[in-house]
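Annex B. Sample input.
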Amino acid sequence: MEALRLPRYGGVALAAVVIAILPFVLPHYDTFELAYCGAYAIAILGLIILTGLNGQISLGHGAFLAAGGYTVAILGQNFGVPYMISIPIAGIVCGLLGILIGMVALRLEGVYLALATFALAVAVPSILKRFGSITGGVQGIVLPTVTAPGPLQNVLSKDQWLYLLTWAIAGILFLVAARLLRGRIGRSLRALRDHETAAISFGVNPTFYKSLAFGWSAAYAGVAGGLTAIATAYVSPDSYTFALSITLLIGAVIGGLESMWGAVLGGFVIEFLPLWAQKINAAAPSVAYGVALIVVMLVMPSGIAGALARGYRRLVRKPRAEGPAQTDAAVPAPLNQPSQAEGTTSTSL
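Annex B, continued. Sample output.
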């Protein structure tokens, strides 16, 4: 078992070292884009917990990003709350909102749950415009530019600080998820996904764990929304359309719905794939998402992370041990060959 764990821990350590080094060797623009990748990875990890591990389909996670972003913006503009405090508050607010929605979603399954979350994603931009006295209406809210605190301003640029802040928070949330998903919570979520009736017969409470999955997923999305808000330094209803929810789900599917590494890969995909496609044609990003999704579903049904994991296992798989070679003494003599025992000969059959 230890031999199986070493590559996993080695991969995590290598990824942490690379992530820590990148902002000091890449241009500022690339560093800024990678900060968005970290925020999207957090949101996609929430989708993996909810959809990949618990089997609840959500088409409305953009609504939770909106709630998180506006929580950070409103607290900062109206009450002067620092973003280091408002980001955790955004996660708590969205987590509670997710639990409430999850309790309602207990009565829905499959396509009906997807339609309910779809309605949530469609309604949120209109709600934000309706309460303009709080949310700023169609004009949105402008946030101050994020800078490194204290003496770090002389060492880190604003892009480097934003990058390190985002990925540090992502690292903490990924570690928390990895720890919890390896225990009773992870086993219960997977049991409800695979066979709810059997899970209930073994004492798993579906009300508790399904609501927990929704709240947990929404809390991660709220933190991601807060991080993207301070990165953009602006929030508006048009930033959180239904397309954002679909983009997050596409990133989760392409990255891999059954792996935490899939969240990281999905974050890179949804951030950089449109940028690369736009170099070909202005209308290419939406087409690129569709083509990438079709290719992944046909060639890599478990996503990029699943395909990489299978390839790694094939590389490190030990060759099957060969059986002991047979000696001449172990080979029986043909029936028509004379026996040499006691100098007698056998009768040919």
